Fold this sequence. Notes:
By secondary structure, this protein is mainly α. Helices cover 73% and strands 0% of the residues.
Amino acid sequence: MREFELAILTEIAIPRVHAGEPYNKVRQDLGVLPGKEATEVARQLLIELCLPRVHAGERCGPLAASIGIFDREAISAFYTTVLQDIGLPRVRQGIPCPQVLGDLGISRGPARAEFLRMAMEIDDVGGGHVADRA
């Protein structure tokens, strides 16, 4: 059943969301309940549709809802990707962690905590100062 749900989401839901329909509504219309497969497809859609928007300067906060995704696990995984791809390079350039988090629109959650931990590791390797700004 799980493989069938994943196939439905991959073959039908992803193109519909790319065309502008909200993911949560499409998933419900297809009769797919929340679960591992639905979360994985939501994460994939966030990466495909929203990561380029963050690279273009939009804040993360409203992006998931803008495409109909409310799955906390998928959103957290998306935030982790954003912080690894965009946030950590900015910290390495010397931008303070609070500014990076604010610019990206990430104010709380496990991804934020993981980002601060990774930034501290950069600080340990780089000789300090990230901790002063976290």
